[in-house]
Amino acid sequence: MSPVTDRVGPRHNPTAGAALPVNLRDLRDEAWRRLDPAHRDYFTGGAGDERTLRANETAFDAYRLLPRVLRGGGERDLRTPLLGGTLSMPVLVSPTAFHRLAHPDGEVGCARAVAGADTVLVLSMAATTPVEAVAAAMDAADRPGRLWFQLYPQPDLGFTESLVRRVEAAGCRALVVTVDSPVLGRRERDLRNGFLDLPPGLGCENMRDPETGRIRDIVLDADLDWPRIDWLRGVTRLPVVLKGILHPADARLAVAHGVDAVWVSNHGGRQLDGAATAVDALPSVVDAVGDRVPVLLDGGIRRGTDVLTALALGATAVGVGRPVLWGLAARGEPGVRQVLDLLRADLGQAMTLAGAVRPADLGPDLLNRMPR
Ligand SMILES: Cc1cc2nc3c(=O)[nH]c(=O)nc-3n(C[C@H](O)[C@H](O)[C@H](O)COP(=O)(O)O)c2cc1C
Ligand SMILES: CCCCCCC(=O)C(=O)O
């Protein structure tokens, strides 16, 4: 029997007394031990000197919290309404490529874990599993609305439209269009390792040409522009989210072009090295967008307090990229479940300590920004 007890502690500390992991970095270390070094570098690395990659995490250090006290409130309520659904917490899974390279459980294992946590998986266009199989895993877990699809619009509009139809038919509930990748960032680890291709047996299954059955290469299109976003909105009724916005002028344009949410992201530091960190770019994007559409954020979220900070700065929800890959590479589906459980517990505990019952209670008054 513990000499110390509290009314919320055990529920917020599901790993107490258990073996590792107690935080996400424990799973990262385990994943790194298991992965082939070239694959570890692909999953871990960023562009150029990895300045933005490092800064995404350290930017959260600039914030200190100003907790409120004597507010009571009992049980925390982390539920978060977003694009027509309600997530069990303000944390979703960012799109990341090649899950079956990390672990045989792949995207299906990830989907099962996400369904169990009752949040959203954004399936990468570079997934190694067909969208229909991932959707079936969500359906089997009775969470059909929890799958979104990430799209790099292809210059071949016919193929793009056929993929959108496929994704709609599978039951995805939103299209996340990645707009920070007119070309691939210069990932020097991959260049050194010569990491170019997936091993035999793995491929980007959602790139299968409907006519030939052949897997097409993903084209990152430097001609992508606002008229193409208008075109995309015209060919689907799914909500369209733009991922990779950092500049407030682009956030304003996104709203003017009728998008349904704006996702502040620098692609986890993998595209433009030296780009602003997500958390630094967030306040001016929130200001530009106002209440018109939700603002999401990813990049460097590793702790409940990081989630709390992003929400206090005006994000509706945050995404996690690498931590999910760590969980998957370390332990497959249960590892992803652990990542999401750890973040939920950490966020609940941080909110309790900060005097907030629900995400709507979080505002900039709870933050003290340190000079850097
Ligand atoms: C290995 C890896 C693969 C990624 N693949 C994609 C992708 O296919 N599409 C996309 O929009 N973003 C992709 N991203 C970026 C993530 O969606 C996300 O923006 C980023 O990982 C967030 O930062 P974090 O890893 O610090 O959480 C990828 C990131 C990583 C690390
Ligand atoms: C040629 C396009 C491959 C994209 C792979 C996934 C991705 O976005 C990444 O960051 O890696």
TrEMBL record:
Keyword annotations of the record: Flavoprotein, FMN, Oxidoreductase
Pfam families: FMN_dh
Transcription regulation listed as a keyword: no
InterPro entries reported for this sequence: Aldolase_TIM, Alpha-hydoxy_acid_DH_FMN, FMN-dep_DH, FMN_HAD, FMN_hydac_DH_AS
Keyword Flavoprotein on entry: yes
Required cofactor names: FMN
Signal peptide: none
Residues in FMN hydroxy acid dehydrogenase domain copies: 16-372
Family: Belongs to the FMN-dependent alpha-hydroxy acid dehydrogenase family.
UniProt-recorded name of the protein: Alpha-hydroxy-acid oxidizing enzyme
Origin species: Plantactinospora endophytica
Taxonomic placement: Bacteria, Bacillati, Actinomycetota, Actinomycetes, Micromonosporales
